[in-house]
Amino acid sequence: MTHAFVDIAWQGQRVPIEHAWVGRPRAERAAPLIVFLHEGLGSVSMWRDFPARLCEAVGARGLVYSRPGYGRSGTLVPEPAWTPAFMHEQAHAVLPALFGALDIDTTDDRPWLFGHSDGGSIALLYAARLPGRIAGAVVLAPHILVEDLSVASIGQARVAFETTDLRQRLAKHHADVDRAFRRWNDIWLDPAFRGWSIEDHLGAIRCPLLAVQGLDDEYGTLAQIRGIAARVPGTRLLELPDCRHSPHRDQPDAVIAAVRDLLSMPIAAAP
């Protein structure tokens, strides 16, 4: 992937966002556009070759980007403290600002969102807020509420960051690895976050939706994707054995096959 930067307008500042295009040429409008939203510690580079592989398999254009403060993207200066609404801010402000900066008209060129973990939650929030500006969504190991398992595993990640080579491994993917890790880790372990939920938002989703969960996911249970299906009629579920928190790494072929089937569905006109 060839990485580039574009400035978005966010909270009165210009913030540079790292991004890359993969798959079919961007101008090939007959091909669907898939936008990849990374997990809580992710970045453009941490997707590795999966976005290109998926886009090649389904004949899509792909946009991969690092959220502010991740990968090589900038962030607000000074950066305000994160709140439990940080994913809402990414879905409702940052992602639309990125589309605007890249001249993507989401009323005419409606994207598919492919989100992993926190990125999956952001995709759901975008789909609920802007139903006429999305073609569909694929969410891998999304969070719709906070589970004890999630908090315990995120606490273990903090210990690993401080005592193992996890910091060095993540530093290959983030310009400021300490900031990237601490912001994510601190808010998830903040007692104020325990009551976080997006369950009440899900009923507004109208687009085709595929929700994927590994049966061995260390950060969430099947309650997450089954909770989505209970609130969004027609949701397709994919529950994968021998799969942890990253289905696109542990079971890429199964994920690609399910996405190909989803994209073959006819897309309803925007409401």
Q: Would you mind describing this structure in some detail?
A:
The chain has 271 residues and is α/β, with parallel strands linked by helices. It has one domain (3-263): 3-Layer(aba) Sandwich (Rossmann fold). Helix content is 36%, strand content 18%. The chain is built from nine helices and eight strands. It has an eight-stranded mixed beta sheet with strand order 1-2-4-3-5-6-7-8, with helices on both faces. A hairpin with a 2-residue loop joins strand 1 (3-10) and strand 2. Helix 2 (86-101) packs across helix 3. The longest helix is centred in the middle third of the chain and has 16 residues, at 86-101. The mean pLDDT is 96.
Q: What's the SSE blueprint?
A:
Elements: E1 3-10, E2 13-23, E3 33-37, H1 50-58, E4 61-65, H2 86-101, E5 112-116, H3 118-129, E6 136-140, H4 148-163, H5 166-171, H6 177-189, E7 209-214, H7 223-231, E8 236-240, H8 247-250, H9 252-263
Parallel strand pairs: 3-4, 3-5, 5-6, 6-7, 7-8
Antiparallel strand pairs: 1-2, 2-4
